[in-house]
Specification:
Length: 412
C-alpha cells in the first residue's frame, strides 16, 4: 500500500541540493522529459542515486523512524556519499509533506546498498533508485536484486518553485505548537515509549489557572546566547524589585536531557509545555510584583522555525504568516525586548564563558544560515512583537536603555 501511494505522478518533490539557493523541484510523469541544467547536476552521471521516504499513520513512530534513518545515514555512509534533505508534498496543503533523503553515492563500495536494503525491510520506508539515459532520468522502486514487481518508470520532470518552502507546510503543531492541548497530546502518545512523559504531564496537570487580572507588568528578555540576557535580567530584578523567572522552568531540568535526544516533534512539544508552566508561574508572581522572564515563547518558536526550514532566510514563512502568531491560550507579556549584538562579539562572549553548549547553540556558531534564520524569525513574531535593543554597549548602558523603554511602555 505504501509503495503504491508514494510519489504519484503530479505530486511535487524537492531536494535541498544547494542550501544557498532554492530547493530543486520536480514532478514525475509517465513520459520522458528533458532535464534542466540544475537537475542535470543532481541527476548526472556521477554515481548511484537513491531516495528514501518515511510514511506512517502513527506520527510518533514516523518521527522516530525519520530520526533513526538520519543518524544511520550520517554514521554509516562513506565520505563519497552526499545526503540531501528531500520532500514529497502537495503545494499549499498543510501537513502534506512526506520527509526523506536523497543519496548520491560516488563511492565504489556497497555501503549505501547494504544500508538501504536493511531500511527497506520496514513497511514505513520506501526506497527509490534513479537511472539516467541521455537527457532523461527516471525513478523506480529499488530492490538490491531484481526489479520490483509492478514498479513503473516515472520520469523526472523539472518544475517551477513552490510558492512556499515545503518545510513550512508541516510546522504547525509539529515544530511549533499553538495550544497547550496539541502539545499535551504528543506527550500522551509517548507515555508507552518515554516513561518521563507521564511525569511531565503530571506537572502540567498540577498547574493552576494561568490567566491574570490587573497585575504588575511582565517583561520578557529574548535573544541568542551570549547577548547579555542573564546580566540584564539580574540587573532588572534588582532595580525593579521584580521576580525573575526563566523558561524552560527549573522543574523541567531533570527531563531536558531525555527529551533533547528525541525527534523534533517530541522535543518541541516538551518545550512548548514548558512555556505553559512558565505562564502559570507568571500568573501567580505578577499579582505580587513586576515579573522579568528570561526567554519565553519567542525563543521556542524562533529556534523551531529556523531548524525546521532548510537553507536560506528566504525559505522562512513570509512576514505576516499565521505561523508567527502568539498562541491564543498562552499568557501574553506586556513587553518583549530582543537583545542583539554583532556575530563577532557574540562568539567572543561565548568563548569567554567556556560552558557546554546545546546542539542548537553549537549550530549557531558554525552555520550562518541558521543564525540569520533564528534572528529573522524572532523579528517576525507578532502579538506581541519584539522591540530590538542593541546590547553591544556596556551592561550599565544597556540597562539604562531598557529601563527607559520599560518606563515608557509599562509605566514603571
Amino acid at each position: 500500500m505504501l509503495r503504491r501511494a508514494m510519489f504519484r505522478c503530479g505530486q511535487l518533490c524537492s531536494v535541498e541540493f544547494d542550501l544557498r539557493a532554492e530547493p530543486l523541484y520536480f514532478t514525475l510523469s509517465s513520459s520522458p522529459q528533458v532535464l534542466h541544467h540544475a537537475h542535470q547536476q543532481l541527476f548526472g552521471d556521477c554515481g548511484k542515486l537513491f531516495s528514501l521516504h518515511v510514511q506512517c499513520e502513527n506520527r510518533i513512530e514516523k518521527a522516530q523512524t525519520h530520526a533513526e534513518i538520519k543518524n544511520k545515514l550520517s554514521s554509516t555512509l562513506s565520505r563519497d556519499c552526499d545526503v540531501f534533505e528531500a520532500s514529497s508534498f502537495i503545494p499549499d496543503v498543510a501537513n502534506s509533506v512526506v520527509k526523506g533523503f536523497f543519496i548520491r553515492d560516488k563511492s565504489t563500495t556497497t555501503l549505501s546498498e547494504d544500508l538501504l536494503n536493511t531500511l527497506r525491510q520496514s513497511e514505513r520506508v520506501c526506497v527509490f533508485s534513479y537511472k539516467r539515459e541521455g537527457q532523461y532520468c527516471w525513478q523506480e522502486l529499488w530492490s538490491p536484486v531484481n526489479q520490483v514487481e509492478g514498479s513503473e518508470r516515472q520520469y523526472i520532470t523539472p518544475a517551477a518553485a513552490a510558492e512556499h518552502h515545503p518545510s513550512t507546510l508541516n510546522i504547525r503543531n509539529s515544530d511549533v505548537f499553538y495550544s497547550m492541548d496539541e502539545a499535551y497530546k504528543v506527550l500522551q502518545e509517548c507515555t508507552d515509549i518515554i516513561p518521563e512523559s507521564k511525569e511531565v504531564l503530571k506537572l502540567i496537570d498540577e498547574q493552576l489557572e494561568t490567566s491574570r487580572g490587573d497585575g504588575f507588568p511582565v517583561i520578557v528578555i529574548e535573544g541568542l546566547d551570549a547577548t547579555g540576557k542573564t546580566t540584564l535580567t539580574e540587573a532588572l530584578r534588582e532595580s525593579l524589585n521584580a521576580t525573575l523567572l526563566k523558561s524552560p522552568p527549573q522543574c523541567l531540568a531533570p527531563f531536558r536531557q531525555r527529551f533533547d535526544s528525541e525527534p523534533p516533534l517530541i522535543r518541541r512539544a516538551f518545550y512548548a509545555l514548558g512555556n505553559y508552566i512558565t505562564a502559570a508561574h507568571i500568573g501567580k508572581e505578577s499579582l505580587r510584583a513586576p515579573v522579568i522572564v528570561d526567554r519565553y515563547w519567542h525563543s521556542t518558536a524562533a529556534y523551531a522555525i529556523a531548524t525546521a526550514v532548510g537553507g536560506r532566510v528566504e525559505n522562512l514563512p513570509r512576514p505576516g504568516s499565521e505561523l508567527y502568531q502568539w498562541p491564543e491560550d498562552l499568557l501574553q507579556p506586556n513587553l518583549v525586548l530582543l537583545l542583539t549584538v554583532n556575530p563577532e562579539e557574540r562568539l567572543r562572549r561565548l568563548r569567554d564563558r567556556g560552558q557546554d553548549k546545546t546542539i542548537e547553540e553549537a549550530e549557531l556558531e558554525i552555520n550562518q544560515f541558521f543564525r540569520l534564520k533564528v534572528e529573522e524569525a524572532y523579528k517576525r513574531i507578532q502579538n506581541p512583537a519584539c522591540i530590538i535593543v542593541d546590547a553591544s554597549p556596556s551592561p550599565q548602558e544597556v540597562l539604562q536603555q531598557v529601563q527607559h523603554l520599560i518606563r515608557n511602555k509599562c509605566h514603571l
